[in-house]
Amino acid sequence: MIGPVALLDEAGYALLPALLPAGHMNEIAESLEPWLQSAVGSRNLLTQPGCRDMAVQLQTQLAAIGLLGDNATAVQCTLFDKTADRNWPVALHQDTSIPASVNPPDAAMPIAIKEGAHYVQPPVGVLESLLAVRVHLDDCGVDAGPLRVVTGSHRAGRLDEPAARAMRDAHGEVTCPAARGDALAMRPLLLHASSRARVPARRRVLHFLFGPERLPHGLVWNLTEP
C-alpha cells in the first residue's frame, strides 16, 4: 500500500484517517461557535487559541510521518462552514494566493487586500513548497458536498481556466469524502472544487496552510511582519 508521502507526491493529496480524535473536534467546534457568529469563513483563525494549538499538533504529527519538514510553520487557518442555509458550490480552481507581502514591491506579484491583510501570488516554486491540510470537524459524506480533485494536477504549474477545465476533462475527478477527525493533506496547486450538498448538513472544515519560516523573493508571511 502506497504511503502518504508517496501519495502526496504522485497524486497531490493524501487522506489521513482519524488523524485527530473526534472528541477534540467537538471541543474545537464549541470553542469557535460564539466567535463564528460574526466571522464565518474567516481566513484569520490562527488568532484563535484552539486553532493555534491544533496547528502545533498537526505540525508534530505531519513531521513524524514525513509530510512536513523541520522548518515548516503554520501561516494560515481558514474556516469553511457549509450548512443548509449556506450551501454553496466552489468552482474548479487552484490556491495561488498566500498571506504575505513582498518587499521591495514587485509588479510581478501585485498585492491584494483580503480581510485587511496582504495577499500575493508568488512564483510557482513557492507554491510547490507549501502544504494545505483540511481538518474535518464534521462527517462529510458523498452527499455533503465533499472536495473533488484532479489527481496529479499539482505538477502542471499555474493553470488558467481553459487549461484547468481541459485537464479535468482529460483526467476526471476524484471525490474525497471524510469522517470527523480525518485530515486531507494537499498541494495548493492541486485542482479542486466542490458541489452543493445534495443532502444539506453542517460541514465545517479548518483549512491550515504550512510553509517554510522564511520565503524567497523578498516575501514575508503576514504573521512575521514587523
Characterization of the model:
- The mean pLDDT is 91.
- This protein has a 5-stranded antiparallel beta sheet. Strands 3-11-8-9 form a 4-stranded antiparallel beta sheet. Strands 4-13 form a two-stranded antiparallel sheet.
- The chain is an alpha+beta fold and 226 residues long.
- Helices cover 24% and strands 27% of the residues.
- The protein is globular.
- A hairpin with a 2-residue loop joins strand 5 (112-114) and strand 6 (117-119).
- It is built from 5 helices and 13 strands.
Topology:
Layout lengths: L3 H8 L1 E4 L5 H15 L12 H16 L7 E11 L7 E4 L6 E3 L9 E3 L2 E3 L4 H4 L3 E6 L10 E3 L11 H11 L2 E3 L6 E4 L5 E3 L8 E10 L6 E3 L5
Antiparallel strand pairs: 1-10, 2-12, 3-11, 4-13, 5-6, 7-10, 7-12, 8-9, 8-11
In this structure, how is the largest beta sheet organized?
5 strands, antiparallel
Distance between the termini: 46 Å
Major β-sheet strand ordering: 1-10-7-12-2
Q: What letter string, H or E per element, gives the SSE order?
A: HEHHEEEEEHEEHEEEEE
Helix content: 10-25%
Which class do the helix and strand fractions yield?
alpha+beta
Work out the number of β strands: 13
* Shape call: globular
How much is the average pLDDT?
Answer: 91
- Percentage of residues in strands: 25-35%
Uncertain runs are: none
